[in-house]
Amino acid sequence: MDGHLRGVVAGNAASGSTSIAPARVPKGRRSAGPLARRYAFPERPRAEAFVAGTLSRVAIFNPFRAAYVEDPYPILDRIRSTEPVLWSADLGAWVVTSYAECLRVLQDDDSFSSDPVNASGEFGANVARRRAEVPLGHAPIMGNSDSPHHERLRTIVNRAFTPRAIEAQRARIEAHVAALLEPATPGTPFELVSSLAELLAVTTVLDYIGFPPESLESVRTWSLALMRARAEGASQPGVVEAATGAREEMLGFLARIAEARTYSAPANILSVLIDASDEGAIEPDEMLMMLIHISLAGNGPTTMAIANAAWVLSQHPGAQAWLRAHPDATPAAVEELLRFETSTHFVARFALADVKLGRRTIRRGQQVQVMVGAANRDPARFSNPDKLDFERADNRQLAFGYGVHFCLGAPLARQELDLAIRGLLGKFPDGFQLVEAERGGSYQVRGFWRLVVR
């Protein structure tokens, strides 16, 4: 079980469409893990920045420096205070750091697209070319699509994400947290990412989809073949052929489930999508892409969010003690932990026309990086933003986005975080301390590959 679940987490590297330009790993730099490879950028020494209306060459924004990876917030604060809408020629994107401007971009779907095919130049053209070459290339990925496709698909799948359905998962998630924490012993090192965060993120979403347990390995294999083709196109021999075979096998698998109505639970994602397909509301290829996207897309951010929360708590023993004494405050603590150390560091959008943002004009097709991590530390929106405060009022943090693209799985992820935190505090009644931490993730998904506590 452990082996193929870790493979599903790794499969997150192929789960979404390309939202930022592909890049090489610079010479001398250790090759990144699968999540990081999806979001890699070339490492460059300096960035172009507009300061006080003048183009200056300054060493102001390099998100690959060790200092930034360890603690990006002082640098983001400096950018926000001088140029909250910053052009980076090295990244080929606008870097937006103020809460107000980030919220504007996330809300303004008439001006900003989630679909990278709308990027100008070679990048957008390559996205379109790869989609035309591969099976499911034409099927929209909900997180990287615009209306009307996004609205139609979101309306369908929302039927499976009702508050009642999410709450019905609580007992199963709680039991799974308890089982994953069973080996942990106070005073003994416990590696939290692989032993808790990854497995909880993956099994929760697969349970919620409703795939028969014996099919998980096959579903993973098909999903990775299809998403590899979407990411790479026909650039490598055998990729398109493998994806074509995977599509046929997965469609046959779903047809057999639909005919037998062998869902693993009532009113889950699988049953909702099969019923929508029977009604003609969704095409078979769209259903395939939806299932693949949901099964893979959130694994990395949720894994990192759990690890980030544990890391923050390990740095704040007083917060652990307070939360242990006030367990009813755990939902509010989850919101504050998501604000304080956001796993989704930024999201990408693409301008559909020339548009004014702050003092700058974004040109059609240019990429905008909405720096969620910076927005969530903006003092103009949050008082004393660098303080961890579980009693913070009006905590409208942007970890799950905003507007029509607000994260579909946010209620499920919040429940996982809530129960993981409660489980850790219960397992370590005198508090847990950090033993070892290895930062991983990427520029876009921030977190840890390894986190040992005791």
Can you walk me through this structure?
With 454 residues, the protein is of the alpha+beta class. Helices cover 48% and strands 12% of the residues. A five-stranded mixed sheet has the order 3-4-10-7-5. A three-stranded antiparallel sheet has the order 6-12-11. A two-stranded antiparallel sheet has the order 1-2. Strand 1 (47-51) and strand 2 (54-58) form a beta hairpin. The longest helix is centred in the middle third of the chain and has 22 residues, at 239-260.
Describe the secondary-structure layout.
Blueprint: H1 2-10, H2 34-38, E1 47-51, E2 54-58, H3 66-70, H4 73-82, E3 85-88, E4 93-96, H5 99-107, E5 112-113, H6 121-133, H7 149-157, H8 163-167, H9 170-180, E6 190-191, H10 192-209, H11 216-232, H12 239-260, H13 269-278, H14 284-297, H15 299-315, H16 317-325, H17 330-340, E7 347-351, E8 355-357, E9 360-362, E10 367-370, H18 372-375, H19 410-427, E11 434-441, E12 446-453
Helix pairs in contact: 1-10, 6-11, 9-10, 9-19, 10-14, 10-15, 10-19, 11-12, 15-17, 15-19, 17-19
Morphology? globular
Total count of helical runs of at least 4 residues: 19
Computed structural class = alpha+beta
| Strands in their spatial order, largest beta sheet | 3-4-10-7-5
Which percent range describes the beta-strand content?
Answer: 5-15%
Q: Please give the alpha-carbon distance between the first and last residues.
A: 25 Å
Largest sheet: 5 strands, mixed
Radius of gyration: 22 Å
What is the residue-averaged pLDDT? 86
Poorly predicted regions are 1-59
Q: What is the percent of helical residues?
A: 40-55%
In total, the number of strands is: 12
